[in-house]
Amino acid sequence: MCGRFSQHYTWQEIQAFSQPLANALPPEQGNLQPRYNIAPTTNVHMILPAEGGRELRSARWGLIPSWFKGASPKEFKFATFNARVEDFDQKSSFKNAYKSRRCIIPASGFFEWTGPKADRTPHYFSAANGDPLGIAGLWERWKRPEGEEVTSCTMVVRDADEWTARYHDRMPSFLQPDDFDAWLSGSAGKELLRKTPPKLQEWVVDKQVNKTGAGDSDPATIQAIRS
Questions:
Q1: d(CA 77, CA 136)
Q2: pLDDT tens digits, one per residue of 101-138
Q3: Cut 0.85: pTM above it
Q4: How far is it, in rounded angstroms, from Cα 141 to Cα 194?
Q5: In the chain, which end has fewer C-beta atoms inside a 10 angstrom radius, N or C?
Q6: Which CATH number fits domain 5-222: 3.40.50.2300, 3.40.50.920, 3.90.1680.10, 3.30.450.20?
Q7: Cβ of 29: how many Cβ atoms within 10 Å?
């Protein structure tokens, strides 16, 4: 599964990645805040189709289905930050979003761990060419009882390819830029999610990342550490 990742890019970089991005370079927002240790239940960027192209929006990472009857997202006890490609179209939390509310979650990289639980070694993965990664996602709208709407999302995960399997048996389902439109529009299905992933690179990082949210604003969080 994928339970931690990073999003650190400028408006210009995300515009180049997601052409065309309808809300690129909004002067009132300035630059994008880089984040290096994003954990579930916090807000992340997602890309949605929009008039004139695509739109970068914010959503809670951890999908809350529209049918949930609780008063707060904290009351939803299921782990929905990942959706397994094998069965998300059958799960009540995800199947409606798969039909009509798809997104792309841009990532600068993601983390996985090896070793014993008491002393886990964190590894950081990013595209070998340095480009952002496009992770297939689903999103949903849920309303609090008082009427406030909460937008949330999940990232799709698949079985790891041979290279990534040395570290973990699962990995995000990456989309190639040429497949962005087909995924977002719903004109293509799961076949896009099992394509050969982009070439990745990996290195060990400091164990501070083992703590949720630690170093989220610090670029040193993803710097290589070698023993």
A1: 23
A2: 999 999 999 999 999 988 899 999 999 999 999 999 99
A3: yes
A4: 27
A5: C
A6: 3.90.1680.10
A7: 11
